[in-house]
Design brief:
With 478 residues, the chain is of the alpha/beta class.
Length: 478
């Protein structure tokens, strides 16, 4: 692999040489290096960003922000293959999917630029009664403040786009802390924003190897908006520690359910379930995990999934033919294997998989009828494991699908419109996909975890809106 050396940090750990190696999760090869920042760097980043926000006369004009984003998108287009390869190298996402992520990230930057042109306020009715007589009122939108973003490893470019792109569009100075495992895609994007004209102090990337420093960054009183993508335990804890007045958006995981009705077109459903379950080795917050199939077809569904899973190519994510790459760390391979073996010991039927592929990959696994109280039925697997459960009545399937404390996106496969509507109303989810997998997403649609799965609504236009305040003008005729 190409040895890359990134100097994107605004604060190079007080001038120290890079100390963190970013390694391929597949073979451990060093992809690049970055500097770990210390307490003084965190303080300097916050002070810089807050000073920019408080200087209203120095705010970046909307025209400049739009131009920066559009130039960034064009630069990303010119580097599409390089960006995709970096995603595959540092994150382990198969190159075929890394290319899709890169295209989505470019589209996300364009969406941020387009959002600026529609960023209007509203007219508030006056002259309605005596109190409002001789008045005019309207609103405009202003940046909310310093944005601090903490991101996850599984979409190392596109997640950063979703967190910092709207901040640039809204006119907010940002500080982004990427996942240490996949810091290079983030640092590259910040470099590209700067090359496109974003002043360095307006966009800062900071790599931390201390949870205490990360908490200090997030919970500082100078933070106006906190964007978090990661585990529920960490996200909810940080939310409880935010300074008064700070707003936040949290995106956690789930254990996405898909209902397969007796009348479903299985020839079309199986490929979609396979893609939704094994995309990025199942390391997706809305990955297909629990498939509820009518008892008349349940074993057929499971067997078809098993055959399709067995045909997937597992291995080096930088190779064009690879469909399932590694898990982000070897310890995750061990955890997933433990959960699968526990399910089998409890009575689940292992139809395929259930074994390591080398030290870093796990075979795509199909389990039939695991007990409701085992880990794979109760928790987010975040690995290449799909469970199939038979059901008698669709209401029973809804009840089982809704039984967990997490809720995000769901799916139903059916040819019957009434069944689709019943599923839409019956499933606890922020989105129900009909005849498509649970991981479907375009970046301008709302994307929201419910209950323990998150807080707030993601998606470019929604994040852009949340990173602003609506400020009202009320005038009285002289």
């Amino acid at each position: 692999m190409k040895q890359l050396h990134f100097k994107s940090m605004v604060y190079q750990a007080s001038g120290k040489e890079p100390t963190l190696e970013v390694k391929s999760p597949f073979d451990g090869a060093v992809v690049g290096t970055a500097s770990a920042s210390g307490a003084e760097d965190v303080e300097r980043a916050l002070a810089t960003a807050y000073r920019l926000f408080k200087d209203r006369r120095g705010w970046l004009p909307a025209a400049d922000r739009e131009a920066i984003l559009r130039r960034t998108a064009q630069n990303m287009i010119d580097m599409t293959e390089d960006l995709a390869m970096l995603i595959a190298q540092e994150g382990g996402k198969p190159l075929v999917d890394a290319r899709v992520e890169t295209i989505r990230a470019i589209d996300g930057i364009v969406s941020c630029a387009e959002a600026i042109r529609g960023n209007g306020g509203q007219v508030i009715p006056m002259n309605i009664n005596a109190s409002s007589a001789h008045r005019i009122a309207f609103t405009q939108r202003e940046p909310i403040g310093v944005v601090v973003a903490v991101s996850a490893f599984n979409h190392p470019l596109n997640l950063i786009v979703h967190q910092v792109g709207p901040a640039v569009a809204a006119g907010c100075p940002f500080i982004v802390k990427p996942a240490r495992d996949t810091a290079l895609s983030c640092l590259t994007l910040v470099d590209m924003l700067r090359e496109a004209g974003l002043p360095e102090a307006w966009g800062q990337a900071i790599v931390l190897d201390s949870n205490e420093l990360a908490s200090r960054l997030v919970t500082d009183a100078r933070v106006g908006f906190f964007s978090f993508i990661g585990s529920a335990a960490v996200g909810w804890k940080l939310r409880s520690q935010l300074a008064p007045g700070a707003r936040c958006a949290l995106e956690h995981g789930g254990a996405a359910p898909a209902i397969v009705a007796a009348d479903a077109d299985l020839d079309k459903a199986i490929p979609k379930l396979i893609k939704g379950g094994f995309y990025h080795a199942g390391q997706v917050c809305v990955s297909v995990q629990r498939v509820y199939a009518h008892q008349s077809i349940a074993r057929d569904v499971a067997d078809r999934l098993a055959r399709a899973a067995e045909a997937l190519v597992v291995g080096d994510p930088t190779k064009a033919e690879t469909q399932v790459g590694p898990l982000i760390r070897p310890k995750e391979v061990e955890r997933v294997n433990t959960w699968v073996q526990n399910a089998v010991a409890a009575g689940a039927k292992l139809l395929t998989g259930g074994k390591r592929v080398g030290e870093t990959c796990y075979a795509p696994t199909i389990l039939f009828a695991p007990p409701a109280d085992c880990e794979v039925s109760q928790k987010e697997v975040f690995g290449p494991v799909v469970c199939v459960y038979p059901y008698d009545d669709i209401e029973q399937a809804f009840q089982a699908a809704n039984a967990l404390p997490v809720a995000f996106q769901a799916a139903v496969f059916t040819r019957d419109f009434d069944t689709a509507i019943r599923a839409y109303h019956g499933l606890d989810a922020s989105a129900v996909m009909v005849n498509d997998h649970t991981a479907f997403r375009v970046d301008w649609m709302p994307f929201a975890g419910l209950r323990e799965s998150g807080m707030g609504v993601g998606g470019i236009p929604y994040t852009f809106h949340d990173m602003q305040i609506e400020k009202m003008f009320v005038g009285v005729s002289p």
